[in-house]
Amino acid sequence: MNLDREQALAEAQRIAASGGASEIEVSVCQASEAFVRFGDTGPTQNADRDRVDVSIRVRLKEDDGYREASASCTSLARSETERTLKRALALASVSAPNGELAPMGGAVEVPKTALSKTTSQHDFKAKAAWVDRAVRACGERGLAPAGLISTHGSIRTIVNSNGRQVQGATSRAGFALTASSTGGEGWGGAISAEVDRIDPDLVIERATSKASANRTPIAIEPGAYTVVLEPAAVSSLLLFGSYYGFGAREVSEQSSFLCGRQGEKLFPKELLLVDDAQNAFYPRLPFDGEGNRKSRVELLANGALGEAVTDLNYAKKMGVRCSGHSLSQPNTHGPMASNLVLATGDKSREELLAGVERGLLVTQFHYTNMIEPRDLTLTGMTRNGTFLIENGEVTSSVKNLRFTESLVNTLKNVSGIGREPEVTGALFDGEIVTPWLRVEDFRFTSSSDF
Amino acid sequence: MEMKLAKAAVDAALAAGADYADARVNHTVHEELCVQNGSVAAAEAPEDSGVGIRVMKAGCWGFAAANAGSESEVNELAKRALRVADDLSPARTEPIRLAPLESGAASWETPFEIDPFEVSLEDKLALLNEAEASMRGAEETVVKSAEMSMRREEQWMASSDGAELYQKLMRCGAGISTTAAKNGTAQRRSYPASFGGNPRSAGFEHIESLDLSAHGERMRDESVLLCEAEPCPAGERDLILMGNQLMLQIHESVGHPNELDRVFGHEVDLAGSSFATTEKLGSFQYGSELVNLVADSTIPGGLDTRGFDDDGVASQRWHVVEKGIFKGYHTSREWADRIDESASRGTNRAEGWYNPPIIRITNLSLMPGEWELDDLIADTEDGVLLDTVKMWSIDQRRLNFQFTSEIGWEIKNGKRGKILRDPTYQGTTPEFWRSCDAICNESHWNLWGVANCGKGNPMQVAEMSHGASPARFRKMTFVK
C-alpha cells in the first residue's frame, strides 16, 4: 500500500477547516501489514492487508460546556468523510454539554518520524524463508513449531481546528516461535522497529533449546520463591500498571495503586520506570491521541511512585500539566502510559541466577489478569519454560504454576536488574522495553499437571 | 453491487490461477453511547467497509484485504492474495484440504422488532440518563456509568464453490455499572452483566427489556456494601454460580479447548492449546451426568446466531458434552478432516473483512436442570453464591483456572447471609464440571453475550452467547 501522507493531511486539513462546529479534530490512520502464521505443516493463516481509518471528533460549545461526539469511516473519499462529519454533528447536537472537557490543543511541534524501509520491504518470500528455518529446526529436535512473523507500518495524522497539525510514522516487526514436545513448550521472540535487527536464528535457538530442556518437567509445590523473570514475564506484570494504575483517571477514581503511595520510598532505589515514547531502543509515535507531544514521565524513580500520566481533560480536571498520554478521544478509559521503559541494571543472566539458592526461572506468564486494583493483585500461569534454580544453576524444568501476587510487592522485592533490554508484549495489548528482573518472595498459589 | 464485487474478486483469483477462492465484502455500522457521572462520555458512530479475499494455491492459503470499492481494486487485491499463496506454498509440508461443500445462493437476517438505528438519539440518551440517575445518592460512588451498543453487519460472500451468500446481523446490548471507593478499596457492581452489559442478536426491544433504571439502586447499594464487606475467606466449600458468572466458565473451560485448531497446536503461539485432545472424543468424562453442553449457531438471540460461517457452511446445533461425556468439536472446512469428519461444523469466522477466518466458539450453552434457585440455596449447608464476572485467568491448556466475581453471598445452613468481597475460586476444568450436582430449571435460564472474545495472532475479536441457569459445584477451593 502506498501510505500517502499528503492525501491524509490534505483531507484532514479540509475537514478541520470546514466549520459547522466549535471545534473539529480529524485523525487519520493509514496502515499496511503483512503477516504469516505457521505450524507443523508450514505457513497457515496469513494476510497482506491495508486499511484507512478516519475519525472525526466535533464539539459544540455551550455556556455549560461542550457537546461532543465522534464518527468514523474507512475511506478518505470526500463523499464518505462528509457523511461521517454529518453523523458526528448529529450525535453531538443531542449530547448533553460536559463542563469537564478542556479545549482541544493548539499548534505543537513534534519530532519527525519515518517508516522503516527494511521493515516495509520484508516480503512474503523472506517470511517464508524464516518459516522454513523454524519448521526445519523444530523437526530436527523432534518439536512442533507454531509462530508468527509480521511486519507493520502506519502513518498517523491529526489535525484540529485550533491549529494543531501533527503527523508521524511507526514501524514494527515481530517474530515469535513456540516449540512444543508432548512434555512441554519453549518460546523465543523478538520485536523491533527495524526488521533487520531481528536475528531469526537466535529466536529459533531460544525456543528450541528451551523446549528441548522442558521435555520432562518435574512437579514442585506452590509457595513463595525467588524468581528470575525474563522480559516477556516482566511485561505481563508491568503492563497492568499501564492498563489500570498509571493513568490519572484511576487516581481520580481512587482505584489506582498510586493512591496513598505517591512519593513514599517503598521500592529499591535502582528501579527506574518511565513512560518514554521516544526512547532510542523502540521509538513509537511522539504524540498522543489528541496530538499532544508525549512527555517522558518518571513513574517510579528513587524508590517512589511518581506522577500519573494525563491527557488534556484530566490535566484540567486535576489542575496539573498534560503529559501527552491521551488515547483517541472521546474515551472512558482516560489517559494511559503506553510506552513503558524499565531501565537496565548491571547484572548478566548468570549474575541474576547466582544469587538464587532455590528459585524459579520464568519465561512467560499466560493470561495474567487483575484481581484487585489498589495493590494491583494479579494472577496468571507460567508457560513456555519454567525452570528450577538451585544454588545459582538451572537444574531442571518444572510443571507450570499459578501465581497470585501484587505488583506493589513484586516491585518492592526486586533484588536484581538485568543489563540487556528487550521489547516484549503479553497476551493482551501493549509492549514494553524491559530487562530481566530477579524478585524475592514471589507467591505461587497452585500448580498444574503439565 | 456488493455481491457483484465479491464475485468479480473470485473470478479474478480463478483467472489468475487460484485453485479455490472466496471473497467477503463487509459493511458494518456501529453506534456506542455512554453516559457517565451525568455527562455524555462517549457518543461514537464508527462505520467500517472493505473486502477480504482468500485464495488457495498448491494447498496453501493467501489472503489480502483492503478498503476496496471497485472491480479494478478487487482484481488487484485478488492478485495480491495469489502472490502471497505463491510465495508461501514452497514452505508448506503438506497441502491444506477442504471438506466438501455444496453451496449456492442464500440469505439470512437477524429477526428483530425495532431497528436500533431508527430510534432517535434523544430517546437513547434519555434511557441512559435515566439509568445513570438511578445509581445516584451515595457519595462513595465515584463512577456511575450507563452504556449501550448497537451494531449492524452486512456481508456479501462469494466463493468458487458456488456460494452467493448475503447476511445481515443485528446486535444490541446495554448495561449499567457503578464503582464505589471506601476503606482503601474500590468495588464495582454491574447489571445485567459486566463489561458493557448483556448484548444479543436482536433489535432495540432487547435494550428496552433490560429495564436498566430498575436495577440502579441495588447496584449502587451493593457497590458500597462491598467496600465494607469482609473478603471471601479461603477454604473449601460449595459454590453456586449465577448464570452471568457460569457463562464465563462455559466460555473459557469448554468453548476454547473445544476449538480444533487449538487442539492441534496451531494457536499455541499466543492463545494456547487444549487438554481436550482427540483421543478423548467420545469417552472422556468432562463433567457429571447432569452436564449437557450444546453448541448452537441457530438459537434465537445468540450473538453468533446466523445463517452461515465464513466458509459458507450453514449453521448447526450439536452436543459438545452429552450427559457428561465429551462428544464434539468446533471445526472448519480446513480442520474437519483431521478428525475424520466429512463436513465442517460451520464455526470458521473472521473479524470483519480485514481478517482471515479462524475457528471460533459459537453459542455454547449449559442445558437447564430441574432445580428452583431457592431450593438449591436451601439445600446448601456451607457455600458461597457468586454473581457477575469480575476477573478471570486460565492456563494455556484450559485446565487450571482462577475466577473472581463482583459479589458473593455466604450460604450457611440453607440461608443466604452476608456479602463477601472479591470471592475467588480456583480449580481444574474436569474436576469443576464433574463436581456439578445441581442445575436450575429453564425459568432461570438466560443467554449471556460475550462481545469481546479474543483469539488468533494477530488477535481477532468475535461474539458469541452462552446460555446458563444457576448451578452448584461441590467442594470448590476458594483463595484469598
Question: Main traits of this protein?
Answer:
heterodimer; A: 450 residues; alpha+beta; PmbA/TldD fold; 2 domains; 6-stranded antiparallel beta sheet; 5-stranded mixed β-barrel; 10 helices; 38% strand; B: 480 residues; 8-stranded mixed beta sheet; 9 helices; 24 strands; globular
- Terminal residue distance of chain B: 59 Å
CATH architecture of the largest domain in chain A: 2-Layer Sandwich
User: How is the biggest beta sheet of chain B arranged?
Assistant: 8 strands, mixed
Rounded to an integer, what's the Rg of chain A over CA atoms? 24 Å
The count of strands of chain B amounts to 24
Instruction: Report mean pLDDT of chain A, rounded to a whole number.
Output: 96
How many DSSP H or I helices of chain A?
A: 10
Protein chains sharing the most extensive interface: A-B, 95 and 86 residues
What is the number of E strands of chain A? 19
Determine the N-to-C terminus distance of chain A.
45 Å
Please, what is the oligomeric state? heterodimer
Provide the gyration radius of chain B in Å.
23 Å
Overall average residue pLDDT of chain B: 97
Estimate the global geometry of chain B from the Cα principal axes: globular
Annotation field: number of helices of chain B: 9
A few lines on this structure:
The complex is a heterodimer of chains A (450) and B (480). Chain A is α+β, with helices and mostly antiparallel strands and 450 residues long. Chain A contains ten helices and 19 strands.
Descriptive account of the structure:
The complex is a heterodimer of chains A (450) and B (480). Chain A is α+β, with helices and mostly antiparallel strands and 450 residues long. Chain A has helices spanning 5-16, 78-94, 117-120, 124-140, 200-212, 231-244, 248-252, 312-318, 349-354, 407-412, and strands at 23-39, 42-62, 65-73, 144-160, 165-180, 185-192, 224-229, 273-275, 297-301, 304-305, 340-342, 358-372, 377-390, 393-397, 401-406, 414-417, 422-425, 431-434, 437-447. In chain A, the strands form four sheets. A six-stranded antiparallel β-sheet of chain A has the order 3-2-1-4-5-6. In chain A, helix 4 (124-140) packs parallel to helix 5 (200-212). Chain B folds into two domains: 2-228, PmbA/TldD fold (2-Layer Sandwich); 231-479, no CATH class. Chain B has helices at 2-15, 71-88, 121-133, 204-209, 216-228, 243-255, 260-263, 373-378, 429-434; strands at residues 20-36, 39-57, 60-66, 105-109, 141-159, 164-182, 185-191, 200-201, 230-231, 235-241, 293-296, 317-322, 325-326, 348-349, 358-359, 364-366, 382-394, 400-412, 415-421, 424-428, 436-439, 446-455, 460-468, 471-479. In chain B, the strands form five sheets. In chain B, strands 1, 2, 3, 4, 5, 6, 7 and 8 form an eight-stranded mixed β-sheet that branches. The longest helix of chain B is centred in the first third of the chain and has 18 residues, at 71-88. The termini of chain B are far apart. The mean pLDDT of chain B is 97. Strand 3 of chain A pairs parallel with strand 2 (39-57) of chain B, so a sheet runs across the interface.
